[in-house]
Amino acid sequence: GAGVSQTPSNKVTEKGKYVELRCDPISGHTALYWYRQSLGQGPEFLIYFQGTGAADDSGLPNDRFFAVRPEGSVSTLKIQRTERGDSAVYLCASSLTAGQGGEAFFGQGTRLTVV
Amino acid sequence: AQSVAQPEDQVNVAEGNPLTVKCTYSVSGNPYLFWYVQYPNRGLQFLLKYITGDNLVKGSYGFEAEFNKSQTSFHLKKPSALVSDSALYFCAVRDPGYSTLTFGKGTMLLVSP
Q1: Chain B nearest CA to A3, separation (Å)
Q2: I need a surface site. Which of A33, A38, B74, B113 has the fewest CB within 10 A?
Q3: Long-range contacts of B41-44 (CB under 8 A, 24+ apart)
């Protein structure tokens, strides 16, 4: 597609449930990033993929959060046993490569609300 | 470690006046610096970047930014503001030794008619 696509755009779930958020990056982009943006804050890094592998997952807040990118394209962020504090906008971005100063292109985000 | 500071939560400017949105950074090496803009209910849109070379970089929608290594700053500027420039602006930095961006908390720009 022309840009980074994220689905769903909005997700409301009950506390304790499992959710999956999907990201479809720009075709040909090898680097993929997940960020989380809470109200009034800048995006916070969660995890970065180079190809199929998670090159840096140091931003994942705990073991309830997990992400995969099995074929080096689409990625899924998975959150188990959701908590109200997980409510935020989850942003996905992709770039051609991770280096060389290339800019990242962001999707419109998935707004997750845990009730 | 890398970090970004945007000291102003909000900047107010009248249409037609010049605008500046401030950003300072901290990295261990030479930085890659970026500005993004976020409109309501939209994702982040890339405006401009500094990688190397000329300290004054020009970007989308008439915006520019000046890299100042001695002051570790990368302020966003525009000679004449438009009401449509009203949005949330984020500065971001990446140390070339890292693969991820670190963002500031954002500055809301409000341009009044």
Answers
A1: 11
A2: B113
A3: B41/A108, B42/A108, B43/A4, B43/A91, B43/A106, B43/A107, B43/A108, B43/A109, B44/A43, B44/A91, B44/A93, B44/A106, B44/B90
